[in-house]
Amino acid sequence: MLHLDKNSGDYLYRQVIDLVVENIESGTLEPGDRLPSLRRMSKHAGVSVPTVRQAYVELERQRKVESRPKSGFYVRNQLRNDIVRPSPGVAPDPGPLQCRSLMERVYEGIYNPELVPLGVANPTMARPAAKSLNRAMKRTLSGADEAVLSYAASHGALPLRRQIAWHYFDTLGARVDPESICITNGGQEGLLLALKAVTRPGDIVAVESPTYHGILELIDSLDLLAVDVSTCPEEGVMTGRLTEVLDRHEVKACVFSTTLNNPLGVTMPDEDRRRLADILADRGIPLIEDDVYGELRFDGVRPVPVQFLDRGVDVITVGSFSKTVAPGYRIGWVVSSSRHDEIHRLKRSFSITSAFVQQLTLADFMSSGDYTRHLNGLRPVLKRNCERMSALVAQHFPAETRVSQPAGGSVLWLELPKSVSGECLFDDALAAGISINPGRIYTPCGCYENFIRLSFGHRWDQRTEDAVKWLGRHVSELAAA
Amino acid sequence: MLHLDKNSGDYLYRQVIDLVVENIESGTLEPGDRLPSLRRMSKHAGVSVPTVRQAYVELERQRKVESRPKSGFYVRNQLRNDIVRPSPGVAPDPGPLQCRSLMERVYEGIYNPELVPLGVANPTMARPAAKSLNRAMKRTLSGADEAVLSYAASHGALPLRRQIAWHYFDTLGARVDPESICITNGGQEGLLLALKAVTRPGDIVAVESPTYHGILELIDSLDLLAVDVSTCPEEGVMTGRLTEVLDRHEVKACVFSTTLNNPLGVTMPDEDRRRLADILADRGIPLIEDDVYGELRFDGVRPVPVQFLDRGVDVITVGSFSKTVAPGYRIGWVVSSSRHDEIHRLKRSFSITSAFVQQLTLADFMSSGDYTRHLNGLRPVLKRNCERMSALVAQHFPAETRVSQPAGGSVLWLELPKSVSGECLFDDALAAGISINPGRIYTPCGCYENFIRLSFGHRWDQRTEDAVKWLGRHVSELAAA
After folding, report:
1. CA dist., res. B110 & res. B99, Å (int)
2. Quick one: DSSP state of residue B179?
3. How far apart are CA A341 and CA B307, in angstroms?
4. HEC per residue, B104-171
5. Which residues in chain A are contacts of B349 at CB distance < 8 A?
6. What is the CATH code of the structural domain delimited by B12-75?
7. What is the DSSP annotation of B190-220?
8. ω before A438 within 30° of 0 (cis)?
9. Chain A: residue nearest B215 by CA?
10. Hey, of A185, A290, A341, A441, which one would you mutate to test binding to chain B, going by the most B CBs within 10 A of its CB?
11. Domain A130-371: which CATH class?
């Protein structure tokens, strides 16, 4: 119940905000409780409906409450939701990957359908587009006949490159020449081509900490060395730290995810993106921008990749349909104007071209509007899954647990009590039929020992709930031991 | 007309052979003429039908005549069909690829549908399996629903790995563990993974001369150096030369095509395979065996890959559906027992996994028997195309032209008169609407200037005939100039 303070003041808007915050802090309003409707609050507080709306929106911005479509505003789960900012130490020198064997063990479990899949990041499975996609593929097969059996152009089928270019224009107003796009075997091959295009064996590459484990494995396979740059939940890549790293090491390329990075889920604010671009432009260091989660913000806002900021930095942007449509299609792409020829040549020498049927199917899927409809349907499901999983973590994990609050994507990044080993938890969870990812695979240098990544990108069911509860209980036990 | 010698002798069988040879040599029987039927010859020569058959088969073995199913025996085109054996010089030292810019120009034309496609080696297009394949894919889509949208296991879908293993057993009696197979994005990614698994940047890799240009480009992209080993039309890789090269250079791997190599079309005889295996086993050098044409001998005989000879050599065999079923599917594989873990890890870090729908479709295509039926239908068409193109070359190219006589595959390798530049011919042909491949892209060291490769792997039509005639005329003009 709300206790309404009837005093009026100059800023009615401010009054509504204070009122709600006070009630949340006192515990009168609990996480999950619905705020009074706009009309009701207007009546209670004696302010206009638009003013209440304005106040609620401000509260949402402050992450105190959240709106649910056609339902109203709710008090958010007040999780211990700040991942600790990395402490200002000196990053370790680049060295060989220390988590190879652990990574192997993680992968062993990742494709096991018997396990509760909290390990693999596969957002599309939260709401698969199977029907419309399979329909589009059958149309493609019927229409194209034997042409789809043959080679597509090395850098990809023109209809798909055109659709991707058009989508950039449609969502971002960015003008992309279809000839500057190269279709790849998923985002992973995009990263491979990009890295090969800008480095030589032995070079040092800067990565986020924590970063997607597939980047670390790739860097290792290419005989490159990774150096960590601290990433924080507010800004993403910490540009101050980046400068320090660039001063200390001869970095030949950076691989950063600017939107919804994996596993932290942070999106770099525009001013940080610009600062990042300027730092790299100034030093002539190319940026490989991993943008495979760019479409998956819950609010549907599409942040502008550094590629399109026009700050004079050499950017290769990697996109993919694996996180948005179908990982099994193995279709991603690379956008680069300055490096296109080299990337095209590498694509040809590494795998000739990508699967033709999928390229034409995706071109059809995009041009028919099914792609946009699918994304619009997927985002709220992911959001709901995120809320459910966050609430379960808040409820069942020990008090010291900290958890990321991603604005999109499909993963949570958890900092467990210091004494709990993510690797032990991984082993125990596997034995209990649950796959999770231990934090140590997200860095080359062996830290994040007490971190784990949990995926909410799958169909939510009782198994998921039980698994998260089990994990929470088990972490409490490990912490107490 | 045959002039029959009525003298009888001890060896009626020999008599029939002499009779036919004599008539061919005198010009009475011309290339393409049909021999008398078994019954008719039996009557004319006064020998039994089985004896005549035995004689005809011996003539076929001697490549004097050829049998055509349900039609009879025909006089073969007596081409100047010996590619000159490489002269016994010392192979050049390994160095950077000298034909990069020429290769770029070749690729520009390769996917241009306006050109007569004598450049690209795409045998399946001679008789596409579109109907049965598209049917299999639609079945897969209907049956598997949303599962096919997700990731397959990194090293490939088990049903396909099982079918491939079974096919090895079925055709060769070879026992292959499906777990030692890794599905790749076509044979090209198979070569990539194999090379990465056994080399470090800067290493020297031995290749055939001439060899498939895609291998050279790949070696260059991986910062490796290629060294030539002479290949001849009788034995394939000349093992004597190989020994010399291995004595001179610290070779870390060999990439050889043992069956129907590209572009020479030679299949290594069994004894040479064994010798090759022993040399490499003795020195502990791994062999990357490019076996993508293994199924495409016109006679349907499947030579045994070195992989299955059990001679103690470390072999990684690369197979593919690109030359047999559908290059647009981008599905190939690698077989390796000793290197499997490393190859699997590289596959994951380079492209995660391969397209799922295609893997299940091909598993269906194989298990239904469609694969074998398709190959049985494809081989005679390729054979017929080969004969037609060889006959046109014999008829329209200058007398000094030498041409390979492949026993399968989809390409002819032509040695033009010394004064004719394959590169000039390539340029002129392009201007005339014909794509061909100049010989220089088949070696890292800049030789084969007066060689070209012509593909007969497409639907034969008047355009093809006219193109080969035009090429012959133009070569004559260039030779005379």
Report:
1. 16
2. G
3. 37
4. HHHHHHHCCCCCEECCCCCHHHHCCCHHHHHHHHHHHHHHHHHHHHCCCCCCCCHHHHHHHHHHHHHH
5. 188, 192, 214, 217-218, 220-221
6. 1.10.10.10
7. HHHHHHHHH--TT-EEEEEES--HHHHHHHH
8. no
9. A349
10. A185
11. alpha beta
Taking CB atoms and an 8 Å limit, are A345 and B221 in contact across chains?
A: yes
| Stretch (H or E) spanning A415 | strand A411-415
The 8-class DSSP code of residue B10 comes to S
The CATH class for the domain spanning B148-369 reads: alpha beta
How many residues appear in chain A? 481
Q: Quick check: B388 and B469 in contact, CB under 8 A?
A: no
B298 contacts: CB under 8 Å, gap ≥ 6: B379, B380, B382, B383, B386, B407, B408
Domain ranges of chain A: 12-75, 100-126+373-480, 130-371
The closest CB to that of B348, out of A107, A201, A349, belongs to A107
Name the DSSP letter for residue B94. P
Flag if A329 and B149 touch (Cβ within 8 Å): yes
Task: Give, in degrees to the nearest 5, the angle at Cα B30 between B29 and B34.
Answer: 70
Tens of pLDDT, residue by residue, chain B (481 residues)? 444 444 444 568 888 998 898 888 777 887 778 899 999 999 888 889 999 999 998 898 887 888 877 788 988 766 555 666 666 655 678 877 888 889 989 988 777 889 999 998 899 999 999 999 999 999 999 887 788 898 889 999 999 999 999 999 999 999 999 999 999 999 999 999 999 999 999 999 999 999 999 999 999 999 999 999 999 888 899 999 999 999 999 999 999 999 999 999 999 999 999 999 999 999 999 999 999 999 999 999 999 999 999 999 999 999 999 999 999 999 999 999 899 999 999 999 999 999 999 999 999 999 999 999 999 999 999 999 999 999 899 889 998 899 998 999 999 999 999 999 999 999 999 999 999 999 999 998 878 999 999 999 999 999 999 999 999 999 999 999 8
| Tokens linked to B338 | 């000793």
Question: So what's the ipTM on this one?
Answer: 0.86
- The answer to whether the Cβ–Cβ distance between B192 and A351 falls below 8 Å is yes
Nearest CA in chain A to B212: A349
* Contact residues, chain B, for A221 at CB < 8 Å: 196, 345-346, 349-350
Using a CB-CB cut-off of 8 Å, the residues of chain A touching B104 are: 345
Place of tokens 């515990």: A27
DSSP code, position A34: B
The CATH code of the domain at A100-126+373-480 is: 3.90.1150.10
d(C-alpha A426, C-alpha A421), whole Å: 9
Q: In the block, which residue shows the tokens 């090759």?
A: B276
Helix, strand, coil percentages for chain A (3-state, nearest 5): 45, 15, 40
Half-sphere exposure of B257 toward its Cβ, with a 13 Å CA cutoff? 31
Query: Could you check whether B12-75 and B148-369 share the same CATH topology?
Result: no
Contact B51, B9 (CB under 8 A): no
Q: What is the DSSP string of B416-447?
A: PPTT--HHHHHHHHHHTTEE-EEGGGG-TTS-
